[in-house]
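Hi V.,

You were right to ask for the full record rather than a summary. Here it is.
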Amino acid sequence: MNDSLPKHDIVLLGAGHTHAHIIRMWRMQPIPQTRLTCISDHTVATYSGMMAGTLAGNYQPSDMEIDLVRLCASCGVRFIHGKVTGLDVEGRRLRLENRPEVTYDLLSVGIGSQPTLPTGNEAGLSIKPMQTFLPRLRKTINKILAQYAGEALQIAIVGGGASGVEIAFCLQQFIKHHYGDTTASKITLVDAGQQILGGMSPRTQKLANRELQRRGIQLRMNSRIVKINGERELVFEEGARWEPDLIIWATSAKPPALLGALGLPLDERGFLLTRNTLQSSGEECIFAVGDTSTVEGERYAKAGVYAVRQGPVLWENLRRKLEGQPLQAWQPQSQFLALINTGDERAILDYRGLSFHARWCWRLKNRIDTKFMAMYQSYDPPEMMHATAETSADAELAKQCGGCGSKASARVLQKSLPALQQSKYDHVLMGLDPPDDIALLAQRPGLSTAVSIDFFSAFVDDPFLLGRIAALNALSDLHAKGATPSAALSVAILPHGSDEQQARLLNDLLAGAVREFSPHNVPIVGGHSIMGPKLTFGFTILGDADAESVMRKSALSLGDCLVLTKPLGTGVLLAAHMQAACRTEWWTTLVESMLVSNQHAATVASEIGVNSATDVTGFGLAAHLLEMLKSSGFSAEISLGSLPLLPGAAELLENGFESTLAPSNRDSCCDLQIASELQGKSATKILFDPQTSGGLLLAVPEHQIEELLSQCGKQAKVIGRIVKGSTDGCHLSIVIGQ
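Predicted structure:
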């Protein structure tokens, strides 16, 4: 499969309703020779239409969430989890926090809005970002109840629009569900206007007022808040003061601070000003949508319905702009259906002067909302993404896992290396006979040069992140031996593309690597790059080591405890990610684990006198442990229940997911005995799961185990022990237990 770099880059900043439509359309009709990138500071997008229903208990939090990691993976869209800090309009580059700039040919900005708060104080809870509103609400109420147990909660909801009214209705159900009937609450809806639900019909306002009164929810109208003292005291324009226990802000929209830093034309309120084509008034290659923008000459509210309706127009205009065709105009509808959840499986309907409050209104709202979400919660990759591979000679290559799952199998090495004929050299202290994690070359008495090389094919389409993980993965071999890395040389296979594209890609890869090498005082001193069919990256690492204190694979002792310093599961999780089956919470912990350096654990092991260690990488835990056992003549017992796993790994293995290298890893482990009770169990597959930037496997004397665990942290786990060598050829036994 010959990959090449895209000719065009479209970047979506933000993942709101409009941009979700673009991502979904990309699954069905990707633009040829173009890459679509979504940048968001959250890995989940929240559908605002179901927030109140989730608060009331009509839905689970996951029902209103779009998993951006899975959605982008299923649609062939690059996802970058990062925070944008600025824009170079002339250079067409987005500036991001703590990572290289992202270039674009076309950019669309849709980062929403924020509730307007009195200046000088951020007290209380804003309903945005909605991704974190419910956890923040729970945490705040828990804190209040811990201090004022038995007293009624005084809650102020500031904002009398649809959001504020819905929250007032549904918050009662939330408190009842989570805190029981005994927790009393007094909710007051505060607004600067004369009437709630401004812009809706008088009958709708009357229905809402009547229901609020029936629920005991008070209204405080004509009450403009001008200041907040301390954490909770509201100061009103007329001079009155009130100190509720909890303040929730659901006020009218204000622009995020970032918009003012982009250098683009703004309206009088600070939102991006656009033409009716949704292009920025100041730059034809930049679009702005949703609450983020205001179309010149149009008057309409900041509401999700407009963002949804802008989706098809933006999609068409992005395509037309690349093709040099005239763009479509977007016209906001003058009226739209509004449905307000009252938290009791009823809703208030407002449309063209008609108003109802009934169960059928809620059923209508539920049908609309769940149908909308179903479009963005289907994460199966489209058939068309696989069709080409399935009908070509490159089918197997297309399915091949990346990372350390792209290694040649252990059997290849077992068959090829013994046949290698070369002279023996006195300065080679560690090499291929027996093989270990590094080569160790004698330089002078007491000092040797440690050398290792590690590279792999890309498993993420974020080159900066790939560079970070590749650096840590390459350092790991030297850490496992107790050596000190001193320099790195890069190895890169770059897909075909223009010089500028390849330079940008290589810069991102190296920038990510430098991010991780710098704390280790390891400079990149050279490297080699070629062009090839698939992005591949890694490093040769040079370092210094004391040959007498190196933690060799063969230096096991009877009774040693086996300690694993990181959880297992990167292989199956990365395989699932290729199929858009790795949930965002799993992906987050997976990336966090791969970005943990093994340096600290190696230093602790060296300082307390551990003699034998290896790092667990592409051949999986079982194969790497067997290498240690065969070179030492001992056997080992591992307790399957003691193995630490990354979140999601067990569930994915149970559901049949597996890295493409796992079967070869399993076949290479012939000296392994699995307890009869565990035969055929999916849980045993984790033994053969290839690890990318995996942890260390340490053989620790029993009397030192407590000290090591206390210094290595909670991730380090005892998984088994070294026992006498077996006479039947079995070196490794897998047993039940903890």
